[in-house]
């Protein structure tokens, strides 16, 4: 397919817009298959001259565009729910918006019960403060006064330890036990003596009882002295142990103060702080989860729930359809998608606002093709500035993607572009010799061959065919085209500035005037060619985008 065939749509737009290159009302009736006979019978020489327009190859600017249609959509859309809440099965407490409300980012839209979540946040905050205080204490270095106080504590603990060791001496307790033992032995001897005398009847019962009582008392005194001595020793040992522990603690405190903060203690304190922070964040998230807020400026488009109900997914849906920044989703044909690039400027029109033109840019080209009824296209996402908030979601837009402009280049009217034997070209006036004259001559030979075959089938005399070819004031010239606009085509090769090119016009009007309405021939082309162009039999076609 040639470039001109791919651009048939744009050419049709050019014809419909009646650009200055096309002369409306000039036409000629050509009897299909009638050739020269039909032309001579129904077209006067003056009408034949009016059946085409001659234009000059010029220099100027040529802008190429891609035309499409698309639908307006929001550029941002958000579906909101309470799914992050720890207990998402709680019911809705409040709904603070309705469909159509315009909201600001951060605005509260709905809530669930938050009493438990608030308590958890308060507890987490207290734990964090405690951990931070411990870390601060661990990092603090003792002052000179504090170190002096610790030194004094060490001295005091040492003195108390020495005193405790002195008190552990059991001489007094030992003496008491020895005295009690001696008293017991004397009481025992006295009792034995009195017992013998009592048995001999030398003493009375009273004297015997007194001796017995004295012995029992001596035993009790001895036992008491022994017990007291043991208790004194045990208590003294405990006091010594306690004094030693206090002395060791005081020494360690003084050592830590002199050495500075302990790295391991600081690390542990820091870890505790981080843990407390994490717990607070978790509690805060749980609190936030029961309060649904707008993530952006926008408008509420769906509300799927009521107070007292358990909210589901997509509880509230909002978008930015009320903003000045919307999008248009357009479909670009396979033949044009290769030209479209992200960032290209775009203009839009719509039947809703015929006097307004909206602007934007190409945002995204989707890589996956879509095929509908055998036609392949690609989705392209376009930004559009919604001035005065006129555009509404779902509106159909006429899209013009501006591919670029080539300045000060050769061009001809779009209506002049033709296709012959699969090649793009124009009809050059007789006597013009472009840079591709040799190609034009070769093409003319091919045209003659096709015409000869057609004429033989129609049993045309060779003389008539020769006369017809000799009478044509133009010949087909292949060209290479660049940018293709609605009204003009850039010429890269095949023509030079000043060359004269022929543009055919519709034959229907001339047919009517020439034949007084009795004969209306179809086709579009130059006179004398049986409804086609000089190749005969319709072998040359006028092409457009």
From TrEMBL:
Annotated compartments: Cell envelope
Gene3D superfamilies per the UniProt record, alphabetical: 2.40.30.170, 2.40.420.20, 2.40.50.100, Helix hairpin bin (1.10.287.470)
Name the record gives this protein: Secretion protein HlyD
SUPFAM superfamilies in the record: HlyD-like secretion proteins (SSF111369), Outer membrane efflux proteins (OEP) (SSF56954)
Region ranges (Disordered): 438-466
Organism, as annotated: Brevibacillus parabrevis
Biased composition (Basic and acidic residues): 449-466
Keyword Magnesium: no
Keywords carried by this UniProt record: Coiled coil, Membrane, Transmembrane, Transmembrane helix
Stretches assigned to coiled coil: 121-293
Pfam families xref list: Beta-barrel_RND_2
Comp. bias intervals (Low complexity): 438-448
GO cellular component labels: cell envelope
Superkingdom field: Bacteria
